[in-house]
Inverse folding.
């Protein structure tokens, strides 16, 4: 298989939505294609995220994606990225696509002079943790992370 990694555009919306819906299902959410399409469309419309896709050149099928959100640190006065989503279709896992997407995210971060990339994953997602460790991501042992639900 030959892959193309590229930054997604609005022209890739329908392909991304299908994968984004499957990603959400993976994390225990119900399928909702319409809401997924609206959500991803808004990310493009408002330039709120950067999405990279891996596409099989022979079938033109999108096999995986990662989505980055820019954030800013007042302390360092620098931009960082939050790698919020990383997903590869089941049948294309364990062949290096996730790693290629992660490397593309890193390359992008360097190009925009980002301080770094932050991510989180489920405590039981050992495959992802193994990849992050392999790519030199460091587990935060210094800070607790909190969340306040407003719903």
């Amino acid at each position: 298989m030959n892959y193309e990694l590229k930054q997604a555009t609005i022209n890739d919306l329908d392909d991304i939505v299908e994968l984004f819906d499957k990603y959400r299902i993976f994390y225990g959410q119900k399928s909702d294609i319409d809401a997924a399409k609206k959500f991803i469309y808004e990310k493009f419309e408002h330039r709120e995220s950067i999405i990279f896709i891996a596409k099989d050149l022979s079938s033109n099928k999108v096999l995986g994606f990662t989505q980055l959100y820019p954030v800013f640190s007042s302390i360092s006065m620098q931009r960082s990225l939050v790698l919020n989503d990383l997903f590869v279709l089941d049948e294309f896992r364990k062949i290096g696509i996730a790693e290629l997407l992660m490397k593309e995210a890193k390359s992008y971060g360097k190009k925009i002079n980002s301080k770094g990339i932050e991510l989180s994953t489920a405590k039981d997602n050992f495959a992802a943790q193994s990849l992050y460790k392999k790519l030199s991501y460091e587990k935060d042992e210094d800070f607790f992370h909190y969340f306040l639900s407003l719903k």
